[in-house]
Amino acid sequence: KNSLFPMQARPKYTIDDIWPGLESGLTHLLFNLTEGFSLDSHMKLYTCVYNHCTTQKPVVRGVATGANFAGEQLYYRLCNFLQKHMKGLLNNASSKIDDSLMSYYKKEWDRYTTALSVINKIFQYLNRHWIKREIEEGTKEVYEVYTLSLVIWKRNFFDLIKHRLTAVTLSLIEKERSGDYIDTSLVKGVIDAYVRLGAVSDKIEEHMQVYNQDFNDAFLKASESFYSHESNDFISKNTVSDYLKKVMKRIEEEKQRLHTFVHPSSEFELMTRLDRVLIENHRDSIWQEFHVLLVNDKIEDMSRMYTLLSRIPNGLQPLKEIFEKHIQASGDAAILENANRALLDPRLYVETILKIHKKYSTVVTSAFRNDTGFVEALDKGCRKFINNNAVTKEAGNSSKSPELVAKYCDILLKKSPKNPDEQEVLGIINDIMIVFKYIEDKDVFQTFYSKVLAKRLINGNSASEFLEGQMITKLKQNCGFEYTAKLARMFSDMSFSKELQDNFRKDVGKDLGVDLSVLVLATGSWPLSPPSTTFNLPKQLAACREAFQNFYTTEYQGRKLNWLTHVSKGEVRTTYAAQQQYSFQCSTYQMGILLLFNENDCLTTSEMQTATDLVQPVLLTTLASLYKTKVLNSSTGEDIVSTTKFTINTDFKSKKTRVGINVRVLEAQTQADKETHQGVEEDRKLQIQAALVRIMKSRKKLSHANLMTEVLTQLQGRFKPKVVVIKKCIDILIEKEYLRRSEKEKDVYTYVA
Amino acid sequence: ELSCMGSRLWKSKEKGKEKSTEKEAPSSPRKKDKKDDNFSEKKIGKLFDKYKDPDGDTMAAAGILSFIEDLGVELTDAVLVIIPFYLRVSVMSEWTRSQWIEGWRSLQLDTLEKIKAHIPVLRSELMDDQKLLQIYKFSFLFYQDPESTGKNLDLETAITAMGILLNNRRHVANFQRFLSQQKTYKVINKDQWMSFLDFSNTIGENFEGYEQDAAWPSLIDDFVEWCQEDRKLK
Description:
heterodimer, A: 753 residues, mainly alpha, 28 helices, 66% helix, B: 234 residues, two-stranded antiparallel sheet, two-stranded antiparallel ribbon, 10 helices
């Protein structure tokens, strides 16, 4: 029927008048909208509704009332109409299965909702008046036309097929997960419909209800179950590395799915469940594999493991512990392998350590994205093996480590043809500082470093002033000003001495007949002790000493000079050898002995002792060195006794003109090192006592436990004091009456002013 | 002068009234008992007269020894440190009349008979924790040489003193053995002396309650270590 309204003289707008036209219009909208719907038709239908509503008397439950708006009959006609439509849909849908059910539903939904927006507009007058008033008055089951249509769809169609629909949709998703191609737009369309059906409620918070209850819950459960099975199956048949790859892939894919057809609101819950099922449930197997990956340097696999385990709570903790232990074990093993050589070869020792540190530092950066927890594990592991390893065990002393590091610095900073250029050395020094950071007994390092530095300075052996300065700067940055104060003082003493020497030479020095150079060093800053022996300076040297002494004391009255003959050296020229005029670079004691031969052809040990006034041990060592270097002949060979006769070896031969004969005996070195360690122990006791007094003076009263903690804290930058030693120091201070045990509380100390 | 058989507890000098002030017994004001009805200053003074040195108004070593003989106790009896505790005397070579009178007044004993009868009571004070603490603390100075600095007790004396005062208490026998065997310590200072009593009172037979990191002096730590070694040998 094309014409909607019969021509009438006096138009009537009762429900029966308008309904046929309306019904026909609605039918067209629902089924033939693709054919078009003119604005004209739209207006005509709208006007129908309008006229009906405005001209009819309101009828409430079939009874005319005095109320303002008509519309009830129209409303229920519409309802019936829509419900009939639903029946049709339901009928058709009952025979459909699988995809075709979904396609049918989507097609009908799209068609329906498109029509609805027009229908809603047509009934706008009804919406604004009768419906509005009914809703305000609280009448149940009265909705705006759009909502009404959805309610009817839901109750009469959707609710009756939703289980089948959901199941089919989920099986399609499962198919896709299993690798088949599916029509994703179909799935998206259906899911979309679920979402939009939520608009049956006018409460915003309930808008996702249909989606959540009728789709999402089932979806999540199905996903969980699917991945649970897949992961259990996969991990039993494949390596953990492959499993991790698969998991990464699966997670990416699911993210894609969320974007493509699942509603984004599912993301959080889905991902949480996936993490649980794919990662958390298998974490034990994953954790167990970590060590293998570490040992085999599988960076990529570790990186994957890190990413995945970061997603679950406490997933990384076991990794950090394993990492730390592994580093410690690797470091231990690396050092053990080289232990015997490394004990005596500082370069090897430090390089071994650095190799391990660098290796695992790279792992932290490339596999663990510099995660602070792993950086910490690296630090802890390094700290452990650097301070306690095969070398320190061999030496019986954890302080062996700082000793070797200090000695390596010495090697680098000494002049040597083997050393690389300045920039490279600077780079190595930076690496050394990394190791230094982990050293616990920093006070031992300082002691050894100052000893080797003193030697370098006294012997003029420094490779580069720039590098020396850099080293001090870096130590200062690490440990503070006080730590490097003495070292810095040593440098300033050197430049001061130079100035002094220049003045001396200009003044008196030129008249001496001996090229004299003197280093004046402040006693407190240099690790040098007075000589262990008396010594008669040869007269030439005695004159020099006097000259300098006078020179110095005129300038600086009140200062006392102690002459360190035991570390002094010089050079003597010889004229007795046949081919060459050799000159010997020797120690002052050696010089003292050699000069005696200017007046004697042959001398016994005891005669030399009388002449030089050297104590027995020093004399014997010096004579041994002169014998070993073939400068002197000994009548008893190696075994020197008091009656041994010595003569100058006139057959001395050497390729070099200037020969260094000041050889040091290794034994002395080891002994010196041992004494250095002992010195450190004594020094530490004093440090501990000083710290105890400082702390108690400021706190006045402190419990034993707190006092221990404070002492450890105060000294931690220098060394780690042992509890036993601290307790002994406390005993000492109690005896000296600096502290007292409180009478009432046995573990509380009070300061005695 | 007073060389006692089998006891090195007493090093007394007749001469030398110079005593270092450090050695003086703790001075806290004495409570004057208002009711001195049972106490006769006259009687106790008479007792003093019996023992006092003819050349002055003090009891010297001879008189003190005489008193002890009259008491009828062994020289190793604990009462011979407990009485000095109450009399507030620091040496066994010179007791003043005032010390004598006030000391016995505080115990309300004015005749030799009363004193003798009271001896068991005095001995029993070692069982009282509070009293023992005071007596033990007093004994550290008391047992020392009058000429010494007062800071240290030599080992032999310490061992004997502990035997007298702490007989049968926990750890005492072992500690005595330890002290005589070890070589590190030559003397005991006050801190160590007092700490041992605390140790004996609070630490169990199997060293329950002892922690190496706690505030015990090193001497005690070494003792525990020695005990553990000793047990292993057994």
